[in-house]
Design brief:
This protein has 14 helices and 12 strands. By secondary structure, the protein is an alpha+beta fold. The chain folds into 2 domains: 168 residues, no CATH class; 120 residues, no CATH class. β6 and β7 form a beta hairpin. The relative contact order is 0.12.
């Protein structure tokens, strides 16, 4: 199977929530979560850009088709919604990926056992764990029910199993931000973690230094989302400590936008022509509207000119 094709298909499915975040998935999120992102795959799959993006994926090879035939699972068709969450603790690579899809649980588990994957039983639930590589955290996967899979580090997966019986309450501020951001967007992310807290995890010294600047330290919460349609709407918000911080941050962002407009890249100029940046009390709000046809053209031009529009997998 071409791993890249499968990964791209899953990530595209994970690049898309016309309805609020699924409470059936949220109940499995760790109570100390600080970063949560959500995706309504069903919603984006029906949009013009969704169809266009799917058309760009390489044709599945024999290995991929065989995997579908054996498991009965096709990520391009069977994934409905995805939720990702993490406590965002610096230096700790912990997190949870929750996928709601059409799984043939029994068929998949039987197949895995047939190829020598012996599950661990935790609180009556089968867990498939991968041996930890040097300096890496052991990863695991489990079926929380017939339609929800959880994957992540072993401790996070086991804790999600525990929350099947006793769901833990999330931070009210995080829940409120999730409700607001997921209400009418196809893809969204919310973070109550300080952006500067990630500075030590960034290998590039220059970027790490920027993240530790006073203005970045003033950002207390961030969020963003995308709505797909004939016009693609992208929006984001940065909440700072004070109104003055927000005003200063908006000015800095606008300065970089102006620089980008004069950089001489037609595709970039087209993208940011409708970009709006302004401060509202202690928040910086950013919005961008792109006609779907224009974005398709930009993607096509980028392909022909060799510009990478997404990281290689």
């Amino acid at each position: 199977m071409r791993l890249r094709f499968l990964a791209i298909a899953c990530l595209f499915s994970a690049a898309a929530v016309a309805s609020a975040a699924d409470s059936a998935l949220l109940k499995f999120v760790m109570p100390d979560a600080k970063v949560v992102s959500g995706i309504n795959v069903d919603s984006i799959r029906l949009t013009p850009f969704g169809q266009f993006f799917l058309s760009l994926l390489p044709a599945p090879d024999a290995g991929f088709e065989q995997a579908i035939a054996v498991t009965g699972f096709d990520p391009r068709r069977d994934i409905h919604e995805i939720l990702m969450a993490s406590p965002a603790e610096p230096g700790k690579k912990t997190g949870l990926l929750l996928v709601r899809a059409d799984f043939d649980k029994g068929r998949i588990l039987t197949l895995l056992k047939a190829v020598g994957k012996t599950p661990e039983i935790y609180n009556g639930v089968e867990i498939l764990a991968a041996p930890a590589a040097p300096n890496r955290i052991s990863q695991a996967l489990t079926f929380l029910d017939s339609s929800v899979v959880a994957a992540g580090d072993v401790d996070s997966v086991k804790a999600a199993i525990d929350r099947q019986k006793t769901a833990a309450a999330l931070d009210p501020a995080l829940l409120a931000a999730i409700a607001a951001m997921s209400a009418n967007r196809d893809a969204w992310v919310v973070s109550t973690a300080s952006i500067s807290s990630f500075a030590k995890s960034v290998p590039n010294a220059n970027v790490s230094g920027v993240l530790q600047g006073d203005l970045i330290k003033a950002i207390q919460q961030s969020s963003g989302g995308v709505t797909f349609g004939s016009t693609i709407e992208i929006s984001g918000e940065l909440t700072t400590k004070t109104n003055e911080d927000a005003s200063s941050l908006a000015s800095v962002v606008q300065f970089f936008v102006t620089m980008a407009q004069g950089a001489g890249h037609p595709e970039l100029t087209t993208l940011i022509q409708s970009l709006s940046v302004h401060s509202d009390s202690n928040a910086v709000k950013v919005s961008l509207s792109i006609p779907e046809a224009v974005l398709e053209t930009i993607v096509k031009v980028s392909q022909h000119t060799g510009v990478r529009t997404a990281p290689r997998i």
